[in-house]
Amino acid sequence: MTLVLGPTGExxxxxxxxxxxxxxxSVTISDGGTLESGACTSSRPTSQAYxxxxxxVPSSLKSTSMTxxxxxQPVHHQKTLSRSHTLPRLTxxxxxxxxxxxxxxxxPDSKVFKMRQWVLAFVVxxxxxxxxxxxxxxxxxxFLSPSEKxxxxxxxxxxxxxxxxxxxxxxxxxxxxxxxxxxxxxxQLAETxxxxxxxxxxxxxxxxxxxxxPPPISLFEASLSHLWSVWECLVxxxxxxxxxxxxxxxxxxxxxxxDLMRPIPLAGDIRPYFTIHDKDHALLVNKAPPKPGLIIxxxxxxxxxxxxxxxxxxxxxxxxxxxxxxxPSAGWTTKTHRRYISKDRQLLKRxxxxxxxxxxxxxxxxxxLRRHFCSRTNAVLVPLNRYLNALIPSPAERDAxxxxxxxxKPFNSTDFFASLRSNPSAxxxxxxxxxxxxxxxxxxxxxxxxxLARQAEVVQDVLRQKR
Length: 467
Known about the structure:
By secondary structure, this protein is α/β, with parallel strands linked by helices. Helix content is about 30%, strand content about 15%. It has helices spanning about 110-115, 145-150, 215-220, 225-235, 245-260, 280-285, 305, 345-355, 360-390, 395-400, 415-420, 430-440, 445-465, and strands spanning about 1-5, 10-15, 30, 35, 40, 50, 120-130, 130-140, 165-170, 175-180, 205, 240-245, 270, 295-300, 310-315, 330-335. The strands form 5 sheets. It has a 5-stranded mixed sheet with strand order 13-14-12-15-16, covered by helices on one side. A 3-stranded antiparallel sheet has the order 2-1-6, with no helix packed on it. Strands 3-4-5 form a 3-stranded antiparallel sheet, with no helix packed on it. It starts with a strand and ends with a helix.
């Protein structure tokens, strides 16, 4: 509880925000009008004296002159995650004297006198790429104990945490559990997350995925039956133009589409929200054919004509009758793409049913939809990984070369399609001809070249370790 002596001498309650509850609560007012608290004394007019009481005010102190004194009752908040690494910590009885391990900086004496009534010192914190936050300067110069430095610059908060780690991030009075991906193109699924409890999108964050509020399924409500064609366009690096009534909707949609491509590396250019004022407008919007893998999110109907070379459009569902959005009609539009793989019609029925349900049903349907397409993306790579194993030189071949060759053999398309005929993909292609055509197109995309280069690096690293 914090009390202030008003102009008339009457105590008044005032909330000054955070304060250290570990400070001694016994206070006295000297004849000169200064406030003394244990070993700490600060010059402060009596009209601004503060009392911090760690225990309730006794009834004997509640005289008629203190009728406006109100005890601060403890507030019981909703149970949240542990904040052991985010709450302030202060050690009692630590003497304060000038620090010798950090620099100081100039600050007007008049302002220092006023600010000392509220703060102990100003601290300048720099961010080092290897060490993380580092205290660089303090004004006025004071000694900072290890616990106080930990409070200002938590040592567990590094700018470069280890891949795959689960960390706590304090945000607006709450704590978020964030799981980092093991690599740039690795998939993160709620079912395999390391949170050790049921996935809750309000408390748990998969760093490589988009937020689930609003549920992504709501964005594609007008084009649910075409999502399998959208996924094929993503894998085959076909340019896609995303229209939406707001920048937030186009951004969420574009990032969600990018997430569906993992673990296939991103080989194109994505712009979650693009405008005519962007510095790259002339580079991306012109009469030349669009670059492979280009995904642009826009709200301006001008792009419908200026991006006429892009064959595939996605228009977000317009929520609310009062929302007026110009541009193409809601849904999916394509000029050239013809689907290769059959839909999952049972999943489609569940998605259509969830769109008419509540927010919880939409969220779970969005998780199911994401898991479905992530599994399909993995299935695309299965025949390639199988053939890639045949390109790894055996120990006998490495010894016979004399130089200890540590690289893959050259990729041969003819041998790959021979392997594909004997071991077809698990994806439900409409026919074997469609399967071959699909992989012929994918082998010509920049995504395949980037994927093959990264696989070759992995194999080389493993073979070097075995030498």
